[in-house]
Structure formats: structure tokens, C-alpha cells
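In response to reviewer comment 3 from the previous cycle, which asked for concrete evidence that the modeling workflow produces usable outputs, we include below a single protein chain processed end to end. The sequence was submitted unchanged, and the resulting C-alpha cells are shown without manual editing.
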Amino acid sequence: MRAVVLVGGFGTRLRPLTTDLPKQMLPILDRPMIEHVVEHLAAHGVDEVVLSLGFLPDAFLDAYPDGRCADIPLTYAVEPEPLDTAGAIRFAADEAGIDETFLVLNGDVLTDLAVDELVAFHRASGAEGTVSLTPVDDPSRYGVVPTDADGRVTGFVEKPPAGEAPCNWINAGTYVLEPSVLDRIEPGRRVSVEREVFPAMADAGTLFGFRSEAYWVDTGTPETYLGVQLDLLDGVRGPARSGVDDAADIQPGATVRRSVIGPGVVVAGGARICDAVVMAGSRIGEGAVVESSLVGCNASIGPDAQVIGLSVVGHGAVVADGERLDGDRRPTGSRRPG
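The workflow returned the following C-alpha cells.
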């Protein structure tokens, strides 16, 4: 089984962290997000991953120059222009020569979905395509997918108005597709799989949905990107993990609680970090507070500064001594970490 992983988006919701870095190359604890995604696929029988690249493809090529990630072979498909989700799928499949049943995943989703069970359901149902589904409290932000008793999709409603969704089962961003789906995608133009291809397949009765309540997070916002890492620290997904890198310098008198501290980070005495992510090489000054926020690589938080309320400090950015950020973003100096 081969999998196309879509990693070509701009990651605008996570800016300034993604101004010059694809979001799938941002760290989740001790390694890039894409490695978590590929490792999960490898554990469920996937033996090759095709990365559908668009925005800053060299970040992936430089990170995995030998064409392997999590000990799985990688194939790179670099879009000449943005082709939207379906266009990207067709382009990547054509580039990789895919001509049999294959997987497609959104590269910013972290999940414990049993991919092998999804594939088995797809084969047993005789579907042309199968969409993994997950329940959410507010389906208005997603593509809502009602099904009949057999799992056949009866509609595909993209981001319905609040209170008008036909159910709370949404498109969870992992698909099993037959090669015939590629024929539904006109080559060389922007085509949305959610708004064009899947609704047409639902109308034809060839699209099925696989419901799963496994762990699932779309990491594309500061809140969810932070939350998925706190879940790992809390043991929500397996044994609780440590978030403080061995190469971090936590000086006497500093307090670090329920946080991810990257390699080379220096936390000065009297500083307090809580429910936060501080990436490699950043410096947190004396008496500074970083709480419920994200700090990129090589940033500087001055003495007695406060970074709170889901603030996002970009790579290389500076928060001045005594300055207070509350729910703010600091793009100054946002550059790709070296």
C-alpha cells in the first residue's frame, strides 16, 4: 500500500511560525510533524509515501536527502502551481505512477486511526473511495459526511452553517481511493476533492464513510498545535512523554511545567514556562513568563516579559524586556530556522 500525503499548503493559520517553513516541518516534541505522520503509516502496513509538495518543497528535500523518513521510502511530487486538494492528489499519483488502491492523507492531521481497518472496510464494501470520519462538537468548521446504515455516503456538506449540519461526523482527512477516482480529476487545474470530487462520488453512490472515534487532531491552528503536544505530555496517547530536551539549559530558580522545551533553549532563573512550546535555540530571560503560547526557534523573550493567552512568537523574533503579549503574534524576524 502506498500513501499520498498532502503537505503543500501555506499553513497560514500558524503564521508567523510557517511564514518560511511548512507546518509539517514544525516540531511535535522532539521531531518534525511529518515524521509522526509517516511513522503511524508505517505501523499500519504502508511501505511507501508520496509527499505532495507545493510550498517550500526544499524544506522536505533538505531534511530527508536520502529519500527516507521513519525508515519508509519517500517519493517527491512538487506541484508546478497550487492545484488544490484533488489536483494535488492526481498530480502526485501520476508522478509516482500509482495504478492501484492507495491512501491519501492530510499531512497536518495526527491520529491513532487504525489505517489497516479502514483499508479492510474499503475493500469489503466495494467502494470507489472511502473517507475516514470522526465525531466533533462543532461540525460547522469541517466537511460533514452523513452515511446510511451500510456506510454509504449520502451527502458531502462542506462547512455547513452552525446548527444546520445533518450530523456531527466529519471528514477526518484520510482516504482510501481506487485509481478510477483519478479519472474524475481534470489534470492541470485547481480541483477540490471536498467540494467537487467527493460530492460527485456521493451522488453516484460510490463513496463510503468509515467511522472511528480514535484520537484525531487537525494541528493547523495555534491552539491545536499546542494541544496535541500537551496530550503527549499528559499520556493521552500512550505513556506520558517528557517535553524537556536534554540539551536545554533550565537554570536554577526557573519553573517549567507541562511544556515542551527544545534543544539549546536557555531558561533563566526566575522565568516561568507553563503549558507552552519553546522551540530550539530560544532564550527566555530572567523573570519572564511564557504561558499557553508558542515560541519559535532562536527567539528571544526579554527579562520580565510576558507571552500569554495563546500568543505566537515567530522564529528569531524578539520580545523586549518587560513587554506583554496577550493573544498576539510577533512576526518580526520570522525566518526559517537554520
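The radius of gyration is 21 Å. We consider this sufficient to address the reviewer's concern, and the full set will be provided in the supplementary archive.
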